[in-house]
Amino acid sequence: MRLSPKTIIIAPEKLRDYILNSSHPDGESKARFLSEIGYKQENWQILERDLRNQHLPLAASPGKKSIYGAKYEIVAPLVGPNGDRKWIRSIWIIRTGESVARFVTLIPEEKS
């Protein structure tokens, strides 16, 4: 399944205040991981653009379903602003009763 870019929500605060925040207790390791390929809290818009351009065109695999909705995962490399790449798993959810996919989080992958 491909998630339609027209029906995607990526909350800026999810990227800026969590994923790229090296002071966040849960986001610190993700921020450190992403900084290795050039992402910083100040350039969160580039991460949003790259998720849309590099991950969303790819097929999403069904993940866990819950009372909140159906999750989908995309596992692929992400090429950062410095040209280096890291593999990530991006997680998306389509909430029950909605047709919009929302970005949940990303998880570093061990591929090279």
Q: Topology of this protein?
A:
Blueprint (H helix, E strand, L loop, with lengths): L7 E2 L2 H8 L8 H8 L8 H12 L5 E6 L2 E11 L5 E11 L5 E8 L4
Parallel strand pairs: 1-5
Antiparallel strand pairs: 2-3, 3-4, 4-5
Helix content: 25-40%
**Count of domain modules:** 1
Q: Please compute the radius of gyration using only Cα atoms.
A: 13 Å
Mean pLDDT: 94
The level-1 CATH class: Alpha Beta
Main sheet characteristics? 5 strands, mixed
The secondary-structure class comes to: alpha+beta
Sequence of strands across the biggest β-sheet: 1-5-4-3-2
Oligomer: single chain
Beta-strand residue fraction: 25-35%
Helix tally equals 3
Gap between N and C termini: 25 Å
CATH architecture: 2-Layer Sandwich
Strand element count: 5
What does this structure look like?
A hairpin with a 5-residue loop joins β3 and β4. The longest helix has 12 residues, at 44-55. The chain has one domain: YaeB-like fold (2-Layer Sandwich), CATH 3.30.2310. It has a five-stranded mixed β-sheet with strand order 1-5-4-3-2. The protein is globular, with a radius of gyration of 13 Å. It is α+β, with helices and mostly antiparallel strands. The two termini are 25 Å apart. Helix content is 25%, strand content 34%.
Brief overview:
With 112 residues, the protein is of the alpha+beta class.
